[in-house]
Amino acid sequence: MFLLDPTRAYYQRQIEAASGHPLRAVQRELDRLMAAGLLYRRDEGNRAYYQIDPDFPLYAELRALMLKTASSRERLRGIAASNAAVRLCFLSADGARALVVLGGAARPALDALPGIEIEMLTSDEFIEALRMNRAALDPYVRDGCDLLGRREDVIWRRIEEAGYTVRKGEGVP
Questions:
Q1: Count of CB atoms situated within 10 Å of the CB of 77
Q2: Going by CATH, does the domain composed of 1-69 fall within 1.10.10.10?
Q3: pTM score > 0.70 for this model?
Q4: According to the model, what pLDDT value does residue 115 have?
Q5: CB-based contacts of 132: which residues, under 8 Å, 6+ apart?
Q6: Which long-range contacts (CB under 8 A, 24 or more apart) does 66-73 make?
Q7: Where in the chain are the domains?
Q8: Sheet of 39-44: strands edge to edge?
Q9: pLDDT at residue 133 is higher than 80
Q10: 97-102 and 86-91 as β-strands: parallel, antiparallel, unpaired?
Q11: Phi, psi (degrees; rounded to nearest 5) at 116
């Protein structure tokens, strides 16, 4: 989870929900990863957030190894999560197509994923498609899943207003 989305911080309950492991096991592993120096902790109120330390000496090698051995779905999630232009990423139920919602007009190179056809829309195009009730979005937002879990993005209000309840992909907090 940390290597797939290295720019994001997670609190323990998010990690528990995404991993399916009991809270005590999550806490034990977080302690081990912090002791190794791979993660750091930031306290905010009564929550502790954990994030990967990109300055960890083996970070780049660990991430590259993880992405190399990951499924196409996990590689897409990892590539999309680390690209600043990407706001949201959805995968169709059959796993053959993905919809990437971009913050700007620049189109990042995400086409190096065998077996997944990528469609890209700017956030404005996506919001307009939601407004127009475009059925072409259904395979992603009705039947598919959210690969990034960035539910704090303002676009999620528009998705919910359009009547969609998008499930989170496996392992997505």
A1: 25
A2: yes
A3: yes
A4: 81
A5: none
A6: 66/3, 66/4, 67/3, 70/4, 72/113, 72/114, 72/115, 72/116, 73/116, 73/147, 73/169
A7: 1-69, 70-168
A8: 10-11, 47-52, 39-44
A9: no
A10: antiparallel
A11: -125, 120
Task: Say how far apart CA 145 and CA 139 lie, in whole Å.
Answer: 9
C-alpha–C-alpha distance, residues 3 and 80, integer Å:
12
Q: Distance from CA of residue 39 to its chain's centroid? A: 18
Confidence band, pLDDT 50/70/90 cuts, at residue 94: very high
Which single residue is written with the structure tokens 């590539």?
79
**53-to-14, 16, 47, 87 alpha-carbon distances in Å:** 18, 20, 19, 22
- Residue 1 · residue 15 · CB < 8 Å: yes
Residue of 167, 130, 173 whose CA lies nearest to 146: 167
